[in-house]
Amino acid sequence: MSIQFLKASTSDSLTLTGISKRAFDSDVLIGGPTSGGPLGYKSVPFYTKMARLGHLYKLTDERLIVGGAVLFLKNDVLNVGRIFVSPEHFRKGYGTFMMQEIEAAFFEAKEITLDTPIWNSRTNVFYSKLGYKEIKRDKEFVYYSKQSRSEYLKQ
Prior knowledge:
Layout: E1 3-7, H1 13-25, H2 44-52, E2 56-61, E3 64-74, E4 77-85, H3 94-105, E5 111-117, H4 121-129, E6 133-137, E7 141-147, H5 149-154
Parallel strand pairs: 4-5
Antiparallel strand pairs: 1-2, 2-3, 3-4, 5-7, 6-7
Helix pairs in contact: 1-2
């Protein structure tokens, strides 16, 4: 299997938008109040802009796009704005692989942050399993943080 985590180009935006829409809309099957997702989750212009700004990534398997991520690096902190995998590829290890690749690609970041809806038991368990620690929560979201491997190795 040839799985790669790569920077996406604007030409990948349409495909990634479709995958994002299907992935986030599928959350209704595991307790989501309605189908839907984060701002811009089904917007080609949003993903095109993210690609143009260098924030959009794709996960490919044998050159087929199976998932994506929107990542923001600011002041040594990497924020995982979102990751998503095509529903037909759920539970095949792609999400774990993508998070490991993100952590490796941004090795120099001191901290990695992300958030996920409180109701989404699937993602809350997933991030906890990967070593992310809950740092706070509000009425809608659980906020997670993980010290980067580079910071961990300094200790």
